[in-house]
Design goal:
about 575 residues; single chain; Beta-lactamase; elongated; disordered C terminus; Penicillin-binding protein 2a (Domain 2); alpha+beta
């Protein structure tokens, strides 16, 4: 018996020695490993969506703000009955029960159930009193103007990260520092306390101040939507700018979407087609060739071209005009939009020189606008051009450009010859409302002299006078200038130009009391039916938008000039 007692004593002493050595090892030799393991089990960091900076319009009105909302999560390790909990939670929160139950059975300490829930949902879930369910404050993005500005602002994901538009372009500025909550739990997985970021690190994102005027944007979007619907068209866009600075006052696309609703995975209309889509511009491009030719002194506006009475065939290809014209001076080739006239005018010009013209006016490269997803314009290599290619490019077919490229080139023709970089964000401020970054008008290059610019404006004034293709854009209170475009679309099945699908557009502007262009705009309607001429579809839209924006922009009527009938 004494031997057995002594054996037990030795065994206990041995165990105590092992435990002591192990404790010495943990506490003295490698304490860091044990602390790390304890933190992994009992401390958890929960990442929440950040308080993004507010986006304001030109007048300081909020366009995108962050609101505090609740999100619901669980600790699956302390959910007593996952099947019962999943059944109750899914019923209240509108979730799939089986999927939720699988997540509640995971061997984890934290699982999101539903983020950005309503107050009613929070109240109902709290009433269930399910142990292991937690509630967290997060920030949710809200857009007061919903669909009218959606294609500019874009949207953010459930985690508060920018996914489209300015929200994506300026994500690093808007998002601020990540919001994380450190949660400490006991051995049963229950939260003992939660701590947020230190006060000096919990910074919200910086605000953006745009050049966009929400009132003008609303008018542009509303009237565009009416025009697309009334003309049974596929889509359309409007861009309104200051031609002297490159500021964008409005940029509307339709169809659009409401960024305050639903999942974004299957939303149609989230693309800003004014920037991201290319298309064949048609006759809107004709003044570019004329202004470039005038600058190079290749011809003058009084020079006449014989327009073949509406039909001209060469190299087995026939070009048609919508009317039978004989001899037309260059200014009237623009006024009446003669395809034959512009094709014959440009035939002596070398193909490489035409490409140089397109590049100079910004139609082949990106404009540099502060917005994601801008492609370059495209055209076939000039070395492969035939005479027919040269003719079709001259009246805007066989070349693809974007809306922002077109308005940028148009502005250069009317502002004295300067290619101005277009921009949407005016400045960025910090939490103390101090400007930390601002955008100034930027001249990229000069392409025309002041004299040629004034001359081409005069030519485009005639377009909106009686007999011109843009006469329906004329106004009794303002002097209007511009150019229409009615471009055939390529049939994707046959590869040939369609005889029923067109893009109708009008690029135009108005003259202020000083005699200078004050506002420019491009309107574009894709596949209108049954009428497709720009004079019927695009020009009235331009006129309606200008009429409604005149008071907002403090545009003084210029009746004397508008009624004088200046022929440019």
């Amino acid at each position: 018996m004494a031997g057995r007692v002594k054996g037990v004593q030795l065994l206990l002493i041995g165990l105590l020695v092992v435990i002591g050595l192990r404790a010495f090892d943990f506490q003295v030799i490698q304490p860091g490993q044990i602390i790390t393991q304890a933190h992994k089990r009992f401390d958890h960091a929960i990442e929440l969506s950040s308080n993004r900076g507010t986006i304001y319009d030109k007048g300081g009105q909020p366009l995108a703000i962050s609101l505090e909302v609740n999100s619901i999560a669980v600790n699956p390790r302390i959910i007593a009955n996952p099947a019962h909990a999943a059944s109750k939670l899914s019923s209240i929160l509108g979730l799939d029960r089986r999927s939720l139950e699988r997540r509640l059975r995971e061997k984890r300490y934290f699982v999101w159930v539903k983020r950005h829930v309503t107050p009613d949902e929070v109240k109902a879930v709290k009433a269930l009193n399910i142990k292991g369910v937690g509630f967290y404050d997060e920030a949710k993005r809200f857009y007061p103007d919903s669909e009218s500005l959606a294609n500019i602002l874009g949207f953010v994901g459930i985690d508060g990260k920018g996914l489209e538009g300015l929200e994506l372009m300026y994500d690093s500025v808007l998002k601020g520092k990540e919001r994380k909550i450190g949660v400490h739990k006991d051995g049963m997985g229950r939260i003992i306390y939660a701590r947020g970021l230190p006060p000096d690190e919990a910074n919200d994102g910086y605000p953006l101040w745009l050049t966009i005027d929400r009132r003008i944007q609303y008018i542009a979007f509303t009237e565009l939507k009416k025009a697309v619907t009334a003309n049974k068209a596929q889509s359309g866009f409007v861009i309104i700018t200051n031609p002297s600075t490159g500021e964008i006052y409005a940029m509307a696309s339709y169809p659009s979407f409401d960024p305050n609703k639903g999942s974004y995975q299957h939303l149609a209309g989230h693309t800003n087609i004014a920037i991201a889509h290319t298309f064949e511009p048609g006759s809107v491009i004709k003044p570019v060739w004329v202004s470039w030719g005038l600058e190079k002194k290749l011809f003058n506006v009084s020079q006449s071209i014989y327009c073949e009475n509406g039909s001209f065939t060469f190299h087995r290809t026939t070009i048609h005009d919508h009317e039978k014209y004989g001899w037309l001076p260059v200014r009237d080739i623009i006024k009446f939009s003669s395809n034959i006239g512009i094709a014959k005018l440009m035939q002596p010009i070398d193909s490489d020189d035409m490409i140089s013209c397109l590049k100079a006016f910004g139609l082949m490269g990106q404009t540099g606008i502060d917005f994601p997803g801008e492609p370059s314009g495209t055209v076939r290599d000039s070395g492969t051009w035939t005479s027919v290619d040269k003719a079709t490019v001259s009246f805007g077919q066989g070349i693809a450009v974007t809306g922002i490229q077109l308005i940028t080139s148009f502005n250069a023709m009317v502002n004295g010859g300067m290619i101005m970089r277009p921009y949407i964000v005016d400045h960025i401020t910090d939490s103390k409302n101090t400007i930390i970054q601002s955008t100034r008008p930027t001249i990229l290059r000069k392409v025309l002299s002041q004299e040629v610019s004034q001359e081409i404006v005069g030519v485009m004034k005639s377009v909106t006078l009686k007999g011109g293709t843009g006469a329906s854009a004329n106004m009794s209170t303002f002097q209007v200038f511009g150019k229409t475009g009615t471009a055939q679309k390529v049939d994707q099945l046959t590869g040939a130009y369609s005889d029923k699908d067109y893009i109708s557009s009008f690029a135009g502007g108005i003259i202020d009391a000083t005699g200078k262009p004050r506002l420019t705009m491009i309107v574009c309607i894709n596949e209108p039916h049954p009428y497709y001429y720009a004079s019927i579809v695009a020009c009235p839209l331009f006129k309606e938008i200008v009429t409604q924006c005149a008071t907002i922009m403090d545009l003084s009527p210029n009746i004397t000039l508008a009624t004088r009938g200046d022929n440019g």
